Amino acid sequence: MQLAAFSILVPDYDPAIAFYCGGLGFALTEDIDQGRKRWVTVQAAPGLRVVLARAEGADQLAALARPMGGRVWLFLESTDFDTDAARITAAGGLFEETPRSEPYGKVAVWRDPFGNRWDLIQPA
Asked: Is the Cα torsion angle 58, 64, 65, 67 positive or negative in sign?
């Protein structure tokens, strides 16, 4: 077995597709209308897909304010930190700190427009 996909909550599909695909350059791999919802997947590189799950109901909508309890839970690896940080910012992402050097590489925490907290990491 291998991990093939995971989902993140978003308020609506089209703004999420615009951010991840139009802004960050992820590939839209599926967008299938299922009536009341859509099956939407994107990916930055071959292999692992991200399912964009539209929040439904009070509990899921409330979770948009603090996904994963406010922790960083998504990790985007870069070979060119400064270029990718500029792309994230231009797309509407917000860096919460200035980049710092850690033993594992250059890193900074950023938040997507939907509240998900990420690390952008350029490995050492």
From this structure: positive
In whole angstroms, what is the distance from residue 30 CA to residue 21 CA? Answer: 12
**What's the pLDDT tens digit per position in 42-99?**
998 888 899 999 999 999 999 988 889 999 999 999 999 999 999 999 999 999 999 9
Q: What are the C-alpha distances in Å from 18 to residues 2, 61, 107? A: 28, 20, 25
Domains of the chain (ranges; CATH) run 1-65 (3.10.180.10), 71-124 (3.10.180.10)
Distance set, CA 45 to CA 14, 56, 61, 63 (Å): 21, 28, 29, 27
Residues comprising the chain, all counted: 124
Both tokens assigned to 117: 């907290």
The whole model's pTM is what?
Answer: 0.93
